[in-house]
Amino acid sequence: MTISSVKTGAVGLSLALDNNYMEPIATTLVGSGGTNNITFNDIPQTYKHLQIRYISRNAAVSDATGVRFNSDAGTKYALHSLRGGGSTVIATSSANTTFFELPFTAYSGTTSNVFGGGILDILDYANTNKNKTARTLGGADLDGSGSLHYSSGLWINTAAINSITIFGSGSNISQYSRFSLYGIKG
Fold first, then answer.
1. Residue 114 forms part of a structural domain
2. What is the pTM assigned to this prediction?
3. H-helix or E-strand containing 90?
4. Is the pLDDT of residue 73 over 60?
């Protein structure tokens, strides 16, 4: 479907929208007992960017949800993050890490059946002339003390991304967590 023009009051607004701007590639719903990892393999190289939308919960309080590209577990990741919750703001950075962290998932210490949610954008994932960058925005209501988290990251590698692995760094990702991968045309 293409919309060529839309009228709003006395002002004309022209739009050129393509129905296929953002296309679903794959989705995973975590089943009974949870899982330690989810992998999106054989990612088509036909999009400009990738996006993962998620709701998730981890089995352990101190467990992070990590992301690796092309199964690379080397110390090639860097991260800057800003987290706020009510009256507290925390800024952190890390370099030479073995994964990119997804914010913000709820965990077993929070109210039952509460999940965090977020969006991970992976920019220029198929471009082999530059290192890969990512940005995330996520949040969770941790039993009345919610938190928002923004981060940006770097994978120091020029390879095209053809697989993405999401994992619990110390325990399982809980049942009913959902991760959906989309391709964004440029």
1. yes
2. 0.84
3. strand 88-97
4. yes
